[in-house]
Amino acid sequence: EGKAVMTANTARDIWITATTLITALNLGIFAYAFAGLTLLFGLFSILTGVIFYTLSRKY
């Protein structure tokens, strides 16, 4: 008949699941690191603003 027969391929299913989970984990780690750097940059910017404000008020 020429029809393709789909058989269960557990090795492929496990590989796809593992690849998906590894990708999700790497994306989560990247997002966590990016959020930390963004927070650090924001706090540094606020600190710089406070320092410049106090310097401008003194002189």
Major sheet summary line: none
Rg is 26 Å
Output mean pLDDT: 93
- Write down how many β-strands occur, each being a DSSP E stretch of 2 or more residues: 0
Number of H/I helices = 1
Helix content: over 70%
Head-to-tail CA distance between termini = 91 Å
Strand content: under 5%
Structural class: mainly alpha
Give a verbal description of the structure:
The chain is mostly helical and 59 residues long. The longest helix has 49 residues, at 10-58. Helix content is 83%, strand content 0%. It has one helix and no strands. It has a domain at 33-58. The model has no long low-confidence stretch (mean pLDDT 93).
Q: Notable features of this structure?
A:
rod-shaped; 59 residues; mainly alpha; single chain
Write the layout of secondary structure elements.
Elements: H1 10-58
Write a compact overview of the structure shown.
With 59 residues, the chain is mostly helical. It has a domain at 33-58.
